[in-house]
Structures are given as C-alpha cells and as structure tokens.
Amino acid sequence: MKRIGFLGLGTMGSPMAVNLCKAGYTVYGWNRSDGKTGPLLAAGGRAAASIRAAVRGADVVITMLPDAPQVEEVAYGPEGILANTRPGALLIDMSTIAPQSSVELARNAAAHGIRVLDAPVAGGEAGAVEGILSIMVGGEADDLEEARPVFEALGKTITRCGTHGLGQTVKAANQLVLAINIQACAEAVVFLEKSGVDLEAALDVLSGGLAGSNVLTRKKTNFLNRDYTPSFRMGLHHKDMGIVTDTARAIGAVIPLGGIAAQLMASAMARGDAEIDHSALLHGVELLSGYDRPQE
Amino acid sequence: MKRIGFLGLGTMGSPMAVNLCKAGYTVYGWNRSDGKTGPLLAAGGRAAASIRAAVRGADVVITMLPDAPQVEEVAYGPEGILANTRPGALLIDMSTIAPQSSVELARNAAAHGIRVLDAPVAGGEAGAVEGILSIMVGGEADDLEEARPVFEALGKTITRCGTHGLGQTVKAANQLVLAINIQACAEAVVFLEKSGVDLEAALDVLSGGLAGSNVLTRKKTNFLNRDYTPSFRMGLHHKDMGIVTDTARAIGAVIPLGGIAAQLMASAMARGDAEIDHSALLHGVELLSGYDRPQE
Amino acid sequence: MKRIGFLGLGTMGSPMAVNLCKAGYTVYGWNRSDGKTGPLLAAGGRAAASIRAAVRGADVVITMLPDAPQVEEVAYGPEGILANTRPGALLIDMSTIAPQSSVELARNAAAHGIRVLDAPVAGGEAGAVEGILSIMVGGEADDLEEARPVFEALGKTITRCGTHGLGQTVKAANQLVLAINIQACAEAVVFLEKSGVDLEAALDVLSGGLAGSNVLTRKKTNFLNRDYTPSFRMGLHHKDMGIVTDTARAIGAVIPLGGIAAQLMASAMARGDAEIDHSALLHGVELLSGYDRPQE
Amino acid sequence: MKRIGFLGLGTMGSPMAVNLCKAGYTVYGWNRSDGKTGPLLAAGGRAAASIRAAVRGADVVITMLPDAPQVEEVAYGPEGILANTRPGALLIDMSTIAPQSSVELARNAAAHGIRVLDAPVAGGEAGAVEGILSIMVGGEADDLEEARPVFEALGKTITRCGTHGLGQTVKAANQLVLAINIQACAEAVVFLEKSGVDLEAALDVLSGGLAGSNVLTRKKTNFLNRDYTPSFRMGLHHKDMGIVTDTARAIGAVIPLGGIAAQLMASAMARGDAEIDHSALLHGVELLSGYDRPQE
C-alpha cells in the first residue's frame, strides 16, 4: 500500500498530504482550484491534473473536502473516484460530512468493489501540520487495520467508532459538545465582566474545578483579548452544526441546548462572523446583553 | 486569630470544622439540628449549644449553610451572629448564596463593626474532607490576608475575585458553566448511543480534543453506568441555578443556554431526581428522546 | 359599600379611580409621588395626604401598584393599610405581583380582620379608561360577590380563578403566552422579510388560519412600521416574566419556551428597550439575524 | 382550461379533486397506492392508471403530496409530469415542501415549457372538504390569474405571496408561528393546572385578551380533555418544522423559539406521538414537569 491519491489540498489537506510524503508514500495530489500543490511538490509528491490521474493505480484514495456535496462531486460520475479507482482499493474520506452521506458513499463504492472508511479528524490545522490529529474511523475493522500505517502518518489517536458513518457520528457529537461548551463560556464571560469580576482570575478558578474544560484553557486568551484570529472558523463549525441537527432529527435524539447553540451560531454567520474563530460566539452574548466592554 | 465559631456542620461543614481543629484552631461548632457534632468533638473541637455560645469570643465566625434564608436566620436578630460577635471579628460566609445577599450581609455587619468575606467553595465533599477546596473570596484584600491561614487549612486554591459578593459571582458562573457542560454531555450521550456508537470509546475520543472537559472525564462512569450516586446533588445545583438566573437578570447578562439548562434542571427536580447526582440530567434527555437504553 | 381608598394613581390607577367616581363611589385617592390627583379631583374624588387618610373609614381599599415591594410597602408597617383599615373591610390588590406575595398578603391581612382579593387586570390603559378591563380574581367567592359592583365599574369580564393568588397565576399565564406569541411573530417577520415576501399580505394570511392571534392582528402595524409607541411597555412585561419564571420554578412547571422568551426580553431590557412597546422583541430578532430592513 | 390532472388523492387531495369535479372540471386522478379513487369517481371524475395518463392533455396539473421527495418523484424522469405534460400547461404544486424545492421545480419545468405555481394550503381536512382552504401562492401573477377559477373551487382566501417559492415561505412561517403558539399554550396549561386554577375558566380569560389566539379557541377542548384525535397530525407538523429550520438556516433568519419548538416536536415524534394531533405537545410539557393530571 504505497501509492495514495489525495483529493483536496486545502488548509487541512495540504499538510496531511505532505506528512504522507514524509512517511514514504507516493502521493498524487489534486485540488479543484489551482495553486495548491506547492507544499506537496516540495515534499516530493506529485500534482495530478485530474481526479482520474490522481486515483489511477492508487492503493488508497483520501478525500479531505469541505462538505458532502464536494465529496459526492469527486466520488460520483464518469470522471469521479468510483469510476476510476481500481477495485480492491480503499477510499478514506476524512472530510466532516453527515453520517448518512458516509453510509451512502460506502454503499455506492461497494458496487465498484471499493471499500470505504469514514475518518473525520479533530485537532485543527496545527494537528494536521504536526501529524497529531485525532482520527475517528467508521467502517470495517479489517479495513482500518490495513489503513493504520496511513493513519499513523497523520494522527496520534486512531479510534474505531463502529460501522460506516459512525466516525462521522462521533465527530458530530464532538462538534455538538464543543459548540455548547464555547457558548457556555461566552455566557459566563459576560456574566462575570458585567459583575465587575477580574475575568482572568475567574476563568482560572473555573478551570481548576469540575467546570474546567479544554475550551476554558485553550480559548482563554481569545476570551480575555477578544482575539478571534481563527483557529477553527465559525463557518466550518456552523456547517458542522447543520450535520448535528440534521442527524439528531433523523435518529430522534433531542438536543435542546444543541438546538439553541445552532441558532446562536447561525446568528454569528448572519452577522458576518463566518471567517473568525468560533470563540466569537462571545460576540453574540455581548450583543444580546447590550454589553460594550470598557476599554482598558 | 485562634478561636473560631463554626455554624453549620453538614456534609461540607463538618469535615471543614475538623480540618480547622487539626490546624490548631479552637473551634466551637453549632448546628441547627442535633447529632452533628460527633466528628468535631472527636477532633478536639467543642459543641456550642447556641449561636451565641459559638460566636462569643470568636476571632472568626464561619457559616456553611444551604442558602441565603439560613444564613440570614443565623446572622440577624437578637440571638444571631451580628448581635453577639465582638466588633472587629471577621465573619466568613462559605455558603453558596446570591451575590446580592452577600453584599447585604456585609453592609449589615459593618453596622456592628464586623467585617465580612464571602467565600463559597468548589470541590465537593471529597475536597472538604481532604482540605483541598477551591475558595472564591469576595471582600477586602486585607481581610482575605488576615483569613488566609484559615483558608489554607481548608483549601488548596484561594482566589480573591473582587469586592463583596464577587466570590459568589464567580461561584455562580462556575455553576452556570457546569450545568451546561453536563447537559451538553447528556445530549451527546443519547446522540451517540442512539446511533449505535460504542459510548466509552466515543467519550474517550471527545475527552482528547477541544471538546474535552472535567465533566467528560470525571462523570464518564456516571454516564456509562447510569450511576447517579450523588457526588453533587441535583437539588443543590438547582438551587444554584436559581442564583444564576436571578443574578443574570439583575445585572442584564443574557444567558440563553443557561436559561434552558435551568429549565431542564427544574424538570429533573419536578420528576423527583433531587437527591441524585446532577449528572442525572441525562435522565431528562433520555425521556425527551423516548430512549430506553438496551440492557446489556 | 360606598367609600373606597385607592392607592396608586398611575397610568392604570388614575382612570380606574375616575371610573369608580363616575359609578357613584366616594373615592379617596393617594399616590406616592405628587401631582397625580388631578383627574380624580376633576371627577369628584378626593385627594388623601397619606395612606392612613385614604383608608380610614373605607369599605374597600384598592391598590394598583408596580410590583410586590410597593404593595408590601403600603400594606405593612404602622402607617400602612393593614394597621389603619377597619376590620371587616375588603382589600383588593389589582397590581400584578407574584402569586405567592398575594397569598402572604391575604394571610397577613387576615390577622387584622381584613379580607383580601387579588385582582390583576388585562386590557391596558385603553381598557382602564373605557372601563372594559378583564379582571382575574383570586380569593373567597363571597368576597368576590361583595366586590362585584366595584369590579363592574372597572371591567367587562370578571372571572374567579380560585383561591388567594390564583388571580395572579392566571395573569402570569397570560403574560407567559403573550410574550411567546409576540416573539413567535417577531421570528416570523424576519423569516418572511428576509425571504422577500410582502409582509403585510403574509401577516394577513397567517391571521386567517390556525396561526392567527390577537397579537398578529393588534400588533400588525407595530411590526409593519417598526412603530414601538408603547401600548404595553417592555419593562412591565419583563417584570411580569420574572413573576412567571419564579412561579414556574416554585411549582415545578417546566416552561422551555418561556425560559427563552424571558431571556430575550431581558436582552431587550439590557439593550435599552424598556420604555417602548413589547412588540419591540422584533428588535432582538433583527439583531440576531444581522438584519437591517431596507428603507422603502 | 377544463382538463385537470390531479396527483395525490390522500386525506387532502381526495376532497379537493372532488370539489374540482363539482366545479365542472374534467379531473383525471392518480394516486400511488390503490383504492383511493372512489370519491373522485363518485363525483364524476376519472381514474388514471399512470402519471402519464393523468397529465396527458391536461391544461392544469395539480400535485398534493406529502413532501418534496414525492413531488420530485412524480415530476421528474421519463414517466413523470414534466416529460408528459404538454408545453404551455400549468403545474400547480399544492404540497407543503421547502421553498427551495419549489424554486428548483419551477426552473426545471421552465425547460419543458411548463409554468409552475407553488400553492400550499392551510385549513386542514375540513377546509379541503368544504372548499374553504387558505391558499398561499408563489409564482407569476399572470399564472395566478389564469389559475384563479381553479383555486376558487378549492379555497376561500387566495393570496399571492411573491415569486416562486414564496407561497411555501409563507406556509412555513405559518407553521413556525403555529408550533410556537401551541407549545406556549401547553406550557400555560401545566402552569395553570399545577397551581390549582380551574383550567377552562383560565383559558377563557386568556382567550379574551391580547394573549388570545385561534389555537387557544380551537384547541381548547383538546387541552381540556387531553383529546388528541388528529386534526393535524404531529408527524406532518414535524415535517414542516424541518422545512422551517432548514429555510431559516439557509436565509440567515435566527429563530430561537422556533429552534426549541422544533426540538420539542422531535421529542414528541421520538416518544411515539406522530399520529396524534399536534396539540399533544402538551404531553411533552407534562412529562418534563413530572405532571400526572389528577383524574376527575
């Protein structure tokens, strides 16, 4: 399993493809828009001019794309992955898409003799660059074992969550909890500041107890400085909340806080915060609270 | 500062009073209901037959009571703390009550020449027994310095949050974030289980990423086993959510998730879950989702 | 039953006192702040210089005040209603206060031999002026019969809701449903306008079906013109939502939409909309949706 | 315009097709499942054995189907409406589907020279039988004028809401407001009953004021008797709430109460209430409030 077709060389995909080169794989990279192959070429990879060129002869095809429509566009049709990948190959979709879309992809690929794993990741751009992503895998256990060396070039934690789509389910649950935790902190920040508490001291106290969380620790300076330099963009989290609410609806899981958090994230989008960090949910709480933070 | 009157020898107060004895203080303990002084006496403390007897001659008076009405009942009136403590003494209220009640207590005590600190704690019964509570202090900085040796006999982290009431404000923010984090996890648990994911594996994945939290780690077995042996009782958290929503309303901090979390905790109370652990918010999500977990 | 002491000559109380004069009662009016007795005097009523002067010799005492603290201030204490009204008289509190406060008032008054009805009203200033208020009465049925002629001078619909406090309970339920209905319309307005629908035509369609409501009909021009001339001020409805959420909490009634509606009304307050009409909940939805309505 | 192909002879479609016969139209009815053509035949209509047979030669084709997938299934493909209807004919889709699906249908039909109106209805089965539906029309004004005689055989109120899809938008807004109003009443019912108020008297009081609504009036006996005989089934309203939340998300309209109402309706579905009346949202509030209504 030496040759990999890698489709989607964006913020996440590009460093992932580079790490695969470094691990000794022959990587043929393709991206819809031009000008994304530089890092891959520098790492010894090759640029493919078409999906067909990227996947032909590949043992493994990896997709890292924004959402299900993009995955479906590269997977299906006469120029797509399924029509041009050799039977017996393994298609690993590392995009974050709806569980149901992953299930359908696996079913459609099976008709071509292609096995599929859904393998969305957590860890952000930094995790992609450093090769320490957390990878949530849905699909056959044997296929995961076959793919393990590939995954180990990309991430640190590799977890099989169950059958097709369940990697996506765990990713969705992650985004659900994360959105709510951020909003919880945002509500606490305004509550504390409006009361006149020293915010940094207070957040440190909260971090030390049962209310402590990775959001509190890692987003602390974002909250303190209203610094919304994107680590994970609101627009992506908003997309994920669509997956969360659709999936919850489909399976009959009732998520009252998730439902409101999705509305508040939609509000951030409507107010123009798509391109900044998701910690900017704090914006919305300030707005609702008529709160204009005093300048120091 | 050697003599301490300690009012309220319940689950939290009793081990706290014991730790003060161990640290060398002369502790006069009092409790409204009988039969609570055993551990204190065993540690070398003394039982006071009345509030008056507990506080007379004390350098420091500590209250550890369920809520503001109980604090006000022991503080005010001819038999109460303010009327019977020597001017110049320090009253430390370690109960969790509304910030506004703490402000009023400080103002009323000042008229008697008594200084007040609000000093609610986090860390639960285990933290009280081991003397490793997190203590959030509101009041004058000098008074905190004077009380520091007392606090150090009780806790590990001692943080001045600001003026009178702001210790309570930070405690309230803590309970706000905590309730929401628990509910977030509860929603994720049903979302994951209904999808057919292995719950333990999934929670471990979430714990490792930005969605990770102390709730996920410390309440994991509660969620996995539906074990609601109380570490912190729903009824107490419900009381605290009343403080949170009242205070938010008073200061104009808008807390959409907090508002819903408070309703869901009120639902737990209405359904009879007052005496079990607050992680039983999961009960409510199961109920809403018509989810009856398959027996193994 | 000819002599009435009337306490609270505000926007509602003043025209109510006038209507009682017109119905033939001898009305002694009192108001905390000066300059409110003009309409009453013009209608043949008398100005009382103190609570004591207003209630002395009265068969019926009526209070029409902003909230429970004001009612309690005029009711209790040596200068208050209970100490200065003759035993056997009837105290009718027409203020909107918490049911529990009404229950306590009735209990305290009973110790003075004074009977109490809680009788909050709906219908607004127009209803007060025209004497067509809807009156929700809690207390003894016999007392209501005795008071009926008085009520008939003030309102059109007089309903006994049950024992002490239950008039307030029905009023609270009214304010709960009303706040939610307004917010529902506000959400629909932004939904429709952002889609490009002609708003007036759409609201007319909604009014004609099961979604129709008095809010849709009577507030239609407020929504269409963003005209928030106060008919019922946000600040008063916000006060009422505090009663709603406190009472729901006390009785174990879970109100998810009510909880959110209360937060959104608190947001309106925090953003400075206290003095405009409660239909300005639409402001908040526009803000959340980043919606700046195109000028015609 | 004398010949009509009518696709979908369900609870709503069957009486609508009958009314068209009565108005003098030649109606060819088709339904996916058998055994639905009885009333149409009795009214002088004809049964079509296929979509093709129903639409061939028709001046107007009407679809009345559960949701967008069913509409798309009968519209597209070689056996579908677009391929078999004569250019110049008018396709009126009276189903309740997503506005975006209506826009796409209109665009696809235009390529076949077929004009489209979206014309969802309100008024329920009774309105369909009596021919007094409220019809919300999106599409060209000229096309509406051409179709007006057809609409007048079916409904009482015919409103042009704007271009393609905007009839659906108004229907969605209707379902949004309606779901929230029902839930508001449900919360009030439990609030009132748990307080001990006579429910019927209280609902009558609310109906008379600004909180009054068609839900309060028409669903009163459902609430009083917990009679959930379906007038409009929860399952259909749940489907509509999916359209509401998807559309709101797509256009950036933030609907906090709508988001929660959708969750609570999803809860009703998950708990098995799909086939009963949507007023059974009251079930959910009872459950959350741990409320078991005392038997009379």
Automatic annotation (TrEMBL), chains A, B, C, D:
Q: Which family does it belong to?
A: Belongs to the HIBADH-related family.
Which lineage is the organism of this entry classified under, starting from the top rank?
Answer: Bacteria, Bacillati, Actinomycetota, Actinomycetes, Kitasatosporales
**Domain 6-phosphogluconate dehydrogenase NADP-binding per the UniProt entry, residue ranges:** 3-162
Q: Which UniProt keywords apply?
A: NAD, Oxidoreductase
* GO MF terms, alphabetically ordered: 2-hydroxy-3-oxopropionate reductase activity; NAD binding; NADP binding
**UniProt xrefs under Pfam families:** NAD_binding_11 (PF14833), NAD_binding_2 (PF03446)
Q: Which GO terms describe its biological process?
A: glyoxylate metabolic process; organic acid catabolic process
* Protein name from the UniProt record: 2-hydroxy-3-oxopropionate reductase
Q: Is NAD there in the keyword field?
A: yes
Source organism superkingdom? Bacteria
Q: Which residues form the signal peptide?
A: none
- Give the positions the UniProt entry annotates as the active site: K171
3-hydroxyisobutyrate dehydrogenase-like NAD-binding domain location: 165-282
